[in-house]
Write a structure and sequence with these properties.
This protein is α+β, with helices and mostly antiparallel strands. The protein has two domains: about 170 residues, Beta-Lactamase (2-Layer Sandwich), CATH 3.30.450.80; about 70 residues, Winged helix-like DNA-binding domain superfamily/Winged helix DNA-binding domain (Arc Repressor Mutant, subunit A, Orthogonal Bundle). It has eleven helices and seven strands.
Length: about 240
């Protein structure tokens, strides 16, 4: 378990986009013999952005789910939004009193092999509600034992995953309304903390020349001449990031 968890943390640390995050979680879930996972992040109520979904569920199902705006009626997501405690769901363990639309949703999910699961709600301090679910096509004894034996580790994994997804995906890389690429943002963030191009290269596992390339792109996008000026812009737009 320790090696799997460490590999998961390393994968998150090295990730730069949603594909990398997906790979890290999928590898860990597979090592724990959990068939599939889904991470769904709902935007704050005051926001207009769409839900963010990273999962190993069948693409046909996730595309249909988002197109149908099922996150608005999904009983699992509703429960996750109402309380922070992790919970199991599926035949024999809720949810109860479903509406016609909710029953339809669960029936459709079952047709794609998603019949039960363990969901970990995440309520962060920016008003974002998210959930990580590990699901299966049947509530087999082995699945139940894996969930119960590793519940605390899975909760930690969910929290780490959300933290990295929140920071590394689109919304976190905006500086005064200007969107930076993952590498541009990472290089500028480390530069703002006083790291040299050589040091940043060592941290991110890239060459000093590549770091300079990303910093030059960041400067150009922000309309400044020096890395220091770009770092000041970053600090002003996201002060908590540099603490």
């Amino acid at each position: 378990m320790h090696r799997t968890f460490q590999a998961f943390i390393d994968g998150l640390s090295e990730s730069v986009d949603a594909l990398d995050l997906h790979r890290a979680m999928a590898d860990a879930a597979g090592a724990f013999e959990l068939p599939c996972f889904a991470y769904l992040s709902l935007p704050p109520r005051s926001g207009s952005s769409k839900p963010q979904l990273i999962s190993s569920y069948p693409v046909a199902w996730t595309s249909h789910y988002l197109a149908s705006r099922y996150e608005c009626v999904d009983p699992v997501i509703r429960r996750a939004a109402s309380a922070p405690q992790p919970f199991q769901w599926g035949l024999g363990c809720g949810p109860d009193r479903l509406s016609r639309h909710q029953k339809q949703l669960l029936d459709e999910a079952a047709s794609f092999g998603i019949r039960c699961g363990f969901t970990i709600p995440i309520h962060d301090n920016r008003g974002v509600i998210a959930a990580v679910t590990f699901a299966a096509d049947e509530r087999r004894p082995a699945f139940r034992r894996n969930i119960e034996a590793r519940a605390e580790v899975l909760q930690l994994m969910a929290l780490f995953f959300h933290a990295h997804a929140r920071r590394k995906l689109a919304g976190e890389r905006a500086v005064e309304g200007v969107m930076l690429s993952p590498r541009e943002f990472e290089c500028l963030r480390w530069s703002a903390q006083g790291k040299s191009a050589w040091e940043i290269g060592c941290i991110l596992g890239i060459s000093r020349r590549t770091v300079s390339f990303h910093l030059d792109n960041a400067k150009a996008k922000l309309g400044v001449r020096t890395v220091r000026q770009a770092a000041v812009r970053l600090a002003a737009s996201q002060p908590t990031l540099l603490r």
